[in-house]
Amino acid sequence: MQLRIGGLTPLTTIDFPGHLAAVVFCQGCAWRCPYCHNPHLLPVNCDGTDWPMLQAFLEPRRGLLDGVVFSGGEPLFQSGLADAMEGVKSMGFKVALHTAGTHPDRLRRLLPLLDWVGLDIKTSLEHYPQLTGITGSGVKAQESLALLLESGISHEIRTTVDPHLFSRKTLLELAEELADFGVIHYVLQLCRPVENVDQLVHLENTTFLLDTALLERLEGLFSSFMVRGLNR
Ligand code: SF4
Questions:
Q1: What is the pTM of this model?
Q2: In this structure, are residues 41 and 6 in contact, taking their beta carbons and an 8 Å threshold?
Q3: Ligand 1 site: residues with CB under 6 angstroms?
Q4: pLDDT (tens digit, 9 = 90+) per residue, 70-85?
Q5: Where are the extended beta strands (E) located within 56-124?
Q6: Where are the domains of the chain?
């Protein structure tokens, strides 16, 4: 079984809501978001864990962990993901996926295996190429969003808010686009600044962007809305 794994978190209580899980960080991503916090996972190859090592890790944890989260990098980047998920599933674990929806065709085939999905929607359709560096990336993400919403699989749609990439106007436009598309549960997560950015200034800019009036507008668009990591 081919799955290039760049890292492993043995236990998480937050990456698969309501479940105790391990997180498998899949190697590789074709997109280049400026705030990416796992740049070491972007290249295709790594010297990390492979499937037999993951299987050996999981074997004694049957009955202790509820599930396994495939995160990244971008898990859909790898064609071996389906086999790995099937392997995990056959061991009795639930399967969760963190993805930016880069490969909707692969996502479609994986849907029967998935118990939960966290889908990152990075920006509104027209601004995707500017953010990811990839022409057509917005259409891929939108196709994945449609598949996920249609599937009925438990999920979270979320957007990372970098104050350098969003204005109040563009954030509101994105939220309205998502609400029109049928998104019901929506989460904004604060972007952790990358190196060489003044952390205090970054936090002030984010707090300034996400003012009370904007948050109230966003709250009104969704049945369930939250901002992760914002202290007021
Ligand atoms: S899609 Fe995810 S892994 Fe790929 S560059 Fe963007 S943030 Fe990083």
A1: 0.93
A2: yes
A3: 29, 31-33, 36, 38, 72-74, 100
A4: 999 999 999 999 999 9
A5: 67-71, 94-99, 116-120
A6: 1-153, 161-232
